[in-house]
Amino acid sequence: MKPLILISNDDGYLAKGIRCLTEMLRPLGEIVVVAPDRPRSAAGCSITSTVPISAKMVRKEEGMTVYACTGTPADCTKLALSQYVDRTPDIVVSGINHGTNATINEHYSGTVSITKEGAMHGIPSVAFSLCDFDEDADFNPMTSYVQQIVRMVLEKGLPYGSLLNVNFPPVSPYKGIKICKMALGVWKDEFTRHETYYNKDYYWLGGVNIDRDPNDTLNDNWALDQGYVAITPIKIDETDYSLMEEMAGWNL
User: What is the spatial distance between Cα 174 and Cα 149, in angstroms, rounded to a whole number?
Assistant: First the structure.
């Protein structure tokens, strides 16, 4: 039996990135796509709980079925696992995202939220992003890397609750792959204030991501800047165990 591959994204089912991803992975297994019906970037792990969501089949052919869903990326994964697969997927794959999900961006990312949902269900999960926001970005140089990583995860598996966040630099050829830690940083000047004709302020989200340690050669930002594909293993368990040990000595 061919591996069952569940695919989703946060740029919408019509985005070039997810269409390229499905073609890259079709030789590797049976494909089920459940993706948002419109762009839902930076949705994080948000879910829809106050209104119903729906989905419709938009494409079906041998080895691949595609659904468009009105919910968030996390909704899409939940709905797919509940209603649209007849067995547990062998892997959950998200992307290919138009834009970076390296460093602290992964906390906000709808792309990574899909794989977090997969990991919470014990399914090996991988998120792919290209550091290029162009709607017509060239994803072709990623093909052999994407296939290699997915094949390896299908063969080796991942520990329960772990996932891979994979980011590609915007320019190829790539120098190779680096296994990285997540660069720590902060968004600076996230909102800019504007004023309407009625003297009412409104704010537009923007800002610059500041890396706290740009010279750290182990982090994903450094690897991407040097032209490497950055793979960052992430765990769902966010417990700070060293702080737990320290707090055990507090007088609480």
Answer: 15
Report the amino acid identity of residue 41: S
Contact 111, 94 (CB under 8 A): yes
Q: What is the pLDDT of residues 227-248, one digit of tens each?
A: 999 999 999 999 999 999 999 9
Q: Are 150 and 25 in contact (CB under 8 A)?
A: yes
The two structure tokens encoding residue 222 = 């450094």
Residue 212: is its pLDDT beyond 70? Answer: no
In sequence order, which residues have a C-beta less than 8 Å from that of residue 233 and are 6 or more positions away? 162, 163, 164, 165, 179
Q: Which CATH code, of 3.90.25.10, 2.60.40.420, 3.40.1210.10, 3.40.190.10, is assigned to 4-181+215-247?
A: 3.40.1210.10
List residues bridging with 191 in a β-sheet.
205
CA angle 20, 26, 31 (to 5 degrees): 100
- Residues 66 and 58 sit within 8 Å (Cβ to Cβ): yes
